[in-house]
Amino acid sequence: MKSIQKFENTFLLFLIPVAMSSCLSNVDEIEEIDPCAAITFSMHVKPIIDNNCISCHSLEGGQSPNLETYNAVSANALRVKSEVVLREMPIGGSLTNDEITAISCWVDAGALNN
Ligand code: HEC
Predict the structure, then answer these.
(1) Of 51, 68, 87, 112, which one has the fewest beta carbons inside 10 Å?
(2) Mean pLDDT score across all residues of the chain
(3) Peptide bond before 35: cis, by omega within 30 degrees of 0?
(4) CB of 83 closer than 6 angstroms to any ligand 1 atom
C-alpha cells in the first residue's frame, strides 16, 4: 500500500512541471495561430453565406433578413452570428466548426468590409 502511494506521489511530482510547461507552450501556440487573424468578409464570410444562406435569404428566396450583399449582412451581423453559433441556421444544413468560427470572428472584429 505504502509503496503504491509513494509511486503515486512521485508520479504526480513528475506530472506538475510537465503540465505547467505544456500550458505555457499552448499560450504561445494560440497567439501564433489566432483563428481570427486572417478572416475577411470577401474571402471567408461571403462564400459561406452564398453557399449556405442566400438560397432562402435573398430576393428570390424571399426570406428576411436579406443576406445578399455586404451591407445587408453587416446590418444583421449580430443576428447572423447568434443564429449560426446556436446552430439555428442554416435550416436543413450544417456549417463546419471552422465556418462558424469564421463568421463569429468576423462579427466580433466589427463586421468589416474587408
Ligand atoms: C432553407 C432556408 C434557409 C436557409 C438555407 C437559411 N435560413 Fe435563415 N431563416 C430561414 C427562415 C424560414 C427563417 C425565419 C424563421 C426562423 O427564425 O426560424 C430564418 C431566419 C433567419 C434569421 C433571423 C432570426 C431572427 O429572428 O433574428 C437570421 C439572422 C438567419 N435566418 C440567418 C441565416 C444564415 C446566416 C444562414 C446561413 C448560414 C441561413 N439563415 C440559412 C430560412 C433559412
Answers:
(1) 87
(2) 84
(3) no
(4) yes
Cα separation of 32 and 18, whole Å?
A: 21
Residue with cell 509511486: 7
Instruction: Indicate the burial class of 74 (C-beta count within 10 angstroms; 0-12, 13-18, 19 or more).
Output: middle
Three cell numbers written together for 11: 508520479
pLDDT digit string (tens) for 37-64?
Answer: 899 999 999 999 999 999 999 999 999 9
Exposure string over 80-91, b if 16+ CB within 10 A, otherwise e? bbebbeeeebbe
Q: Give me the residue label for grid cell 506521489.
A: 9
Regarding the beta carbon of 85 and ligand 1, being less than 6 Å apart is answered no
The answer to whether 53 and 93 have CB atoms below 8 angstroms apart is no
